[in-house]
Design goal:
The protein has twelve helices and no strands. By secondary structure, it is an all-alpha fold.
Length: 292
């Protein structure tokens, strides 16, 4: 059999292999998927609010230590009216998104190189795993010494927290690619970068996306750690700074409000960015997770 000579042939082969794994039956309706995605978290939130109010009602701790949901909501409305909430959320989301995108640009080729070259894996694979387990807050003092109280400090902490996670996620995904795929790709003419583009990366995509989700989580945590410590009027308000202001004022309502905002942003990114992408990829490969 003659080997394909163009990228179009390899793309057709890739689509054909995916189509073989795709189930013929139709998936759940859009309304059913929306209900499955929204209803369980909504019930969980209501349960948490009920338990929270019960604890406040029983006065297990004084109200200035454990404020009720109504007090926190009033604080949120007050901060929103002053424009603090929108500015803090925007600044933190902007920094987190830029830091995460830069981490993807660095972590993806790094993970690919570590997975493909045995010597490189032996040399820096354990270092990447060690960096991934290192708390990001440990980098903050060093970053402040290097760059002062600037955006460079915050982005450095985010990169050092997220890049190892994204690289390790891609390595794990590539390690699970069956060798048969590579042999078939070589037989059909996919070698070198063509093999990476048309065989390795598509086959490792579910593991790669899982690594990206983990990388975003590390980016967000690293950002909060940096914003809590690196505080300066030049940096502008962020959610981490808002949390620190609440601590300095001993205003527990503001502290809880800032924690809820940090949590809501994380949940929003998961529900509206990563979950649809992951569901589409899994569904395209006929995996059970794609029908959830």
């Amino acid at each position: 059999m003659a080997a394909p000579e163009s990228g179009t042939d390899l793309s057709s082969l890739e689509a054909g292999l995916d189509a073989l794994d795709t189930p013929a039956e139709a998936g759940p309706s859009r309304l059913a998927r929306l209900r499955r995605a929204v209803l369980p978290p909504l019930v969980a939130v209501l349960l948490v609010l009920a338990v929270w109010q019960l604890v406040v009602t029983l006065r297990i701790r004084p109200p200035y230590l454990i404020p009720g949901p109504a007090d926190v909501w009033a604080q949120l409305v007050h901060q929103a009216a002053q424009g603090t909430v929108a500015e803090a959320v925007w600044n933190s989301l902007r920094r987190g998104t830029l830091g995460f995108c830069a981490s993807v640009v660095i972590g993806t080729p790094l993970g690919l190189a570590v997975a493909r070259f045995r010597t490189l894996r032996t040399a820096i694979g354990p270092v990447l795993s060690g960096l991934q387990s290192l708390p990001s807050v440990a980098w903050v003092p060093a970053a402040i010494i290097w760059f002062g109280l600037s955006d460079a400090t915050i982005y450095t902490v985010v990169l050092l927290g997220a890049v190892p996670s994204i690289a390790n996620g891609l390595v794990a995904g590539l390690d699970q690619v069956p060798p048969l795929f590579l042999r078939v790709g070589r037989t059909l003419g996919a070698r070198g970068l063509a093999s990476v583009r048309h065989v390795l990366l598509p086959a490792a995509l579910p593991g790669y996306v899982a690594g990206l989700k983990q990388g975003w989580a590390f980016s967000w945590r690293s950002l909060m750690a940096a914003e809590l410590i690196a505080i300066s009027p030049d940096l502008g308000p962020g959610l981490g700074q808002l949390l620190e202001v609440g601590r300095e004022l001993s205003d527990m309502s503001l502290v809880v409000a800032a924690i809820l905002l940090i949590l809501l942003v994380g949940i929003g990114i998961e529900l509206f960015v990563f979950a649809p992408v992951e569901r589409r990829i899994l569904h395209g490969r006929g995996l059970a997770g794609g029908t959830r």
